[in-house]
Amino acid sequence: MTPTAMPPRWLPIATLIAALFLTILPLPFWAEPYRPRWLALTLIFWCLTQPLRIGVFWGFGAGLVLDVSQGALLGQHALTLSLVAFLAVELNRRIIAFPDWQQAVSIWLILLLERLINLWIMGATGYPTPSLVYWLPTLTSALLWPWLAALLQALCLRTIPE
Amino acid sequence: MAAALALGLMITDSRYQHLDFLRATLAVTLYPLQYLAALPSRLARAVDGRLANEAVLRERNQTLQDENLRLRARMQTFQSLETENRRLRTLLGSSFQVGKRVLIAELLEVELDPFRQQVIVDKGLRAGVYKGQPVLDANAVMGQVIRTNPLTSTVLLITDPAHSLPVQVNRSGLRAIADGTGLINRLRLSHLPEDADIRVGDLLVTSGLGGVFPRGYPVARVIAAGFEPHRSQFATVLAEPTARLDRSHEVLLVWTESTPPPARPAPPDMAAASATTPSRPGVDGDKPR
After folding, report:
1. Does A127 touch chain B (CB under 8 A)?
2. How many CB atoms lie within 10 A of CB A35?
3. For chain B, how many structural domains are there in total?
4. pTM for the whole thing?
5. What is the ipTM for the molecules in this complex?
6. Sheet strands (E) in A5-160
7. How do residues B224-243 score in pLDDT, each as one tens digit?
8. Are B284 and B269 contacting, i.e. CB atoms less than 8 angstroms apart?
9. A28 Cβ under 8 Å from any chain B Cβ
């Protein structure tokens, strides 16, 4: 994955909307705990490849929309995704230089942090501590990362005007 | 800076109601996406209906007819009882109305925060749904409406930790507050003394004291009642909701005749004041904490 030239402006928005769609799509009961954090992954990709254009406030906006669509406390995901975007922008030089599996590990760490803060917010608002299943999505997301990155990269290259 | 903004938003959202407008606007723009996401499962169910073979349909028809017959037989006695009840109540001079308007709504199958007990239904302000409206399924109380949009509304289930419901033991008339636990099949009855007259198997019905739910609807069945002196000085009573909270596709929105739709939400301490044992502000879980 390398930083690319400017893809058209609508592409990040379109992919984020697609990620949101995948987030609220109902899954069979057994698959539910494994649902990857689509929105966070897509956001990380854009922050890594376009750090100058896409950053913390995109994370904030995406998080706000996620809050509304999930009926969560307004600002809960806005905070965590802002943090994710911040980390991705700050660390993008380093992460981009990594080979694929190492990238996946760093993404995993970022997502673990995101879940941890979510857990704190839930704790602070009086929700019971969920079981260890709560952490599973970070694992599936990390495993999915190389493929998602490749796909988004291909989309980027294809849509860049000559 | 975004972090500060997010923190500010969270605090405002949990304490005040100023952000409802922002939430409502965003929710309306999200509706097409939600509709699209719910489409596959809706289609699957439609196709499933089309593909059902004749034997299955005939069998289902038979069971429905049987059930209809049984219900109508019970309805006959119910009608005479209702008339009698109304006559007696007129004699007593109390104002009590039985007739209620209901609306059937369908769940929008979209994924919400898995750790909050909420569902979205496909009827909203346009259909006259109001905030605080009770929601039932075929068996029992499910929850209440907490947010309305023109086309959809969000329902907080009785098992959400932010929800508390005034109930009454059907057998003994004992009143209590049923708190959600965050688990889809558990309610906890708080602040009952150790010698409270409550047993495993007792049916809990709504007491109507919070002013939100009409009285007399079944809520849950007690599955454990005990006293653990080393943990708490109150009895530990757990109950299982009789509504099929995780399986219903259709729900009933009820208009209670005794409480007409309020123009604006009642102050939260009103609900607390009218309940018998207020456990915390907003006893009826008017809004999530």
Report:
1. yes
2. 17
3. 1
4. 0.74
5. 0.74
6. none
7. 888 777 777 788 889 999 88
8. no
9. no
